[in-house]
Write a structure and sequence with these properties.
324 residues, mainly alpha, 80% helix, globular
Amino acid sequence: MLVFFTIGALIFWILYKDQDLDRMKSILTNDVNYFWIWISVFIGLLSHISRAVRWRYLIRPLGHNPRLDNTFYAVMIGYLMNLVIPRMGEISKCGVLARYEKVSFARLFGTVITERIFDLIALGIFTLLMVVTQFGHVLRFLNENPDIRNKVVSMINSPWLIGGLLVAFILLILSWKRIRKSNLYRKLGGYASHFREGILSVRYIKNKGAFIFHTGFIWTMYYMMLYVSFFAFGFTAGLSPLAGLTTFVMGSFGMVAPVQGGIGAWHFMTRESLALYGVPYENGMIFAFLAHGVMTLMVIVLGLFSVLALPFANRRNTATVSPS
């Protein structure tokens, strides 16, 4: 955890160490139209609510119908935990909902895997749209950042990666009979069965159209949350929606970095993306600082609120139920 945070903090420090702090403070105090920032926050809230609604669609085929408020609180606590330990949010939100809704943790985790698959598909669609419409800008980004380009190419063509996957596959085949006879395999059998049920729950969703709608809505709101922030600054207000698309997609890849909340990595990708459309580095860094800060603050506030509200809401609900 500390290693990841240190890496992110180091990237952040490198990016901002030469920033004119007085100018940055002046712009944030006097030149930002915070009306658009509040609109961005509202849009972000809609995306989080939609994510909670979508998760319920996956859980219902498992024979449970969790309350929307519990599901929303679990989602926000998951986001909050991602700021502490990268990727811990998926485990945390399943643990929270399993406790308050009495659903199998393994089944819930399976539904989260399904969620992530559909999220990757959505991000892939946005990425494809960006490449098709902004190919010149993407090519320029890779040319101006050869380290990123070389890492992507080397990772795909890495003989170590290909060889490692091949060796692992061969070892799995050779050891499969022994693995199946082990006590650990039998103990994990039930857990794996529940996990598989969670993953396959998408097949039994009654309203698949609503599930697909919410997937598209979530990612569209993610994009809009960033794009409307452009109007808060004079130096980004004139940028096109496609410029927003490029910035959103590149920033999303920055969020994938194994650092808390994408700190540093998101700022770098956003700065570089805005530079492709003529925004100077120093201005891009100010935009990234505020946009990321608002996103992070919203997660912290809603996450802490959820931690406090969750036990209270469930205690109140239990108290209002009369004994049969």
